[in-house]
Amino acid sequence: MNKKLLFTLLLTGTTSVGHATDEARLLRFPATNGQEVVFSYAGDLYKAPLKGGEAQRLTSHIGYEMFARFSPDGKSIAFTGQYDGNTEVYLISADGGEPTRLTYTATNSRDDLGDRMGPNNIVMTWSPDGKNIVYRNRISDGFDGKLWIYDPANKKVENITNNVAQDIVPMWIGDEIFFISDRDMTMNIFVYNTQTKQTEKVTNYTDYDVKFPSSNGEVIVYENGGYLYKLDPKTRQTEKISITLKSDNILARKEMKKVGGNLTAVSLSADGHRVAVTARGEVFDVPADKGVTRDITRTPGANERDAVWSPDGKYIAYISDRTGETEVWLQPSEGGEPIQLTENNDTYIRQLMWSPNSKKVLYTDRKNRIVEVDVNSKSKKTVMQNPEGEFYSVNYSPDSQWITYTKSGKNNMSVVYVYHLTSGKEYPVTEKWYDSSSPCFSTDGKYLIFTSERDFNPIYSQTEWNHAYNRMGGVYIALLAKDTPSPFLPSDEKISIEDNASGNKAATKENKADNKAGQATGVTIDTEGLPGRLLKLPLAAGYYYQLYSDGKKVWYSNCRI
What we know:
Elements: H1 2-18, E1 28-32, E2 36-41, E3 44-49, E4 53-54, E5 56-57, E6 65-70, E7 76-81, E8 88-93, E9 100-101, E10 122-126, E11 133-136, E12 148-151, E13 156-159, E14 167-173, E15 176-181, E16 188-193, E17 199-201, E18 210-215, E19 220-224, E20 227-231, E21 238-241, E22 243-244, E23 263-268, E24 274-279, E25 282-287, E26 294-295, E27 304-309, E28 315-320, E29 327-332, E30 339-340, E31 349-354, E32 360-365, E33 369-374, E34 380-385, E35 391-396, E36 402-408, E37 414-420, E38 425-428, E39 436-441, E40 447-453, E41 458-460, E42 467-469, E43 473-479, H2 500-516, E44 534-536, E45 543-549, E46 554-559
Parallel strand pairs: 4-22
Antiparallel strand pairs: 1-2, 2-3, 3-5, 6-7, 7-8, 8-9, 10-11, 12-13, 14-15, 15-16, 16-17, 18-19, 19-20, 20-21, 23-24, 24-25, 25-26, 27-28, 28-29, 29-30, 31-32, 32-33, 33-34, 35-36, 36-37, 37-38, 39-40, 40-43, 41-42, 43-44, 45-46
């Protein structure tokens, strides 16, 4: 009796959960026949009424099914699928069923949905008579972001969007050509009138791009922010298509994962005993030798990244989007609740670092800013903002009073700078004529080490009379103080005769000096004439990165191109 009752209760609970459906999101690649809309969700094709409602699943293969297009009569759907390994064109009934493969093409090395040019064999449209399917095959890596009209009678070509923006996905409806453009930084729908030659902006989204619009000649459907919308070309009115669907969410199920092969960041603690590891969106506190590995974030619904230990060992700082926007968080090394260091951020955070005194956290963001945050007060200060582009390779000086970074100028050459945080003054270290990058202070505060492309050794083509430059990079150091001598000056060893006692005292002093080596109490930078105090390390030209120096040696990574 009790067993039967328990089974009934469990079944009832399961049934109620199965009926709980929310509005679907992350819907992609929509197309319409005027009555229905077909789209991709979690790699499968679904169909729903154009007015919204419950979606019907059409495919269920483990690969991707995408870029669906209704036939002119609305009875068939052509789409791009991966049933047999390659990405090919398939045909399926609009009511579902077994798909028929239509194309057999060679494997493309860049046949990847994540590639910026898209996968191979994208279904574009049908011919008006429904006898042919137009698809794009990746036979090259070129891409033209301009729109053209070809007049076959007069054999003339007319450019209708001559600007630096990307103007793509044209849809000819009546006397007008609708397309999407990012000329206002966010991709929106525009329309060009073939009679008046005028262009008009139709949508005005600022948060998310309009993506993958398509039309049956009477209505336009498109994606924005993961939702689907329909646009009436005549009235210019848009309406959201509210869709619900039942999915087994096979790709979103909880599972145990080995993340050792998915490391994105590592940071060693000050004492060298622990390592902060970022892997697959989680932050782990890992022993350097023996001990317990701890997942300190445990947020499967959020993405944590770029975890870094504070120099004093009290905190692990990391970036998280658990609030809906990227913010800086702190995890006490002794345990306890995480601390949200920043709030109400307005854009994506790029790079994160601690000041050597552990009092400040500095980050760069997508709005081309350098922002410094006080750990105790949580107050934020925008150090600077660059209208030309983002900052890269931002690093503190050992005394936490200066920062160094690269920023791009109007000629697209990156220049290395130093910036005094108290006075707010910026000073160039390199000239604008050479591309320079990866600056960092030596730990003793005497030098600034960076890379710069200044080696011009042209090679000549075997098939055409032209030249090219490669292996231009070298490692350079800047002498920060005027009285700092070049470390490459020759010196003679002096021979002195001392007794053993004196020798022991000298050895003791030398050991103490070695212990203090690399610990700068104050960094002196004589900014006048700084670009003239640059020295090149005696290294062959190549590609150098990941620089570090203690003032006596320079460590680097090198990729010989």
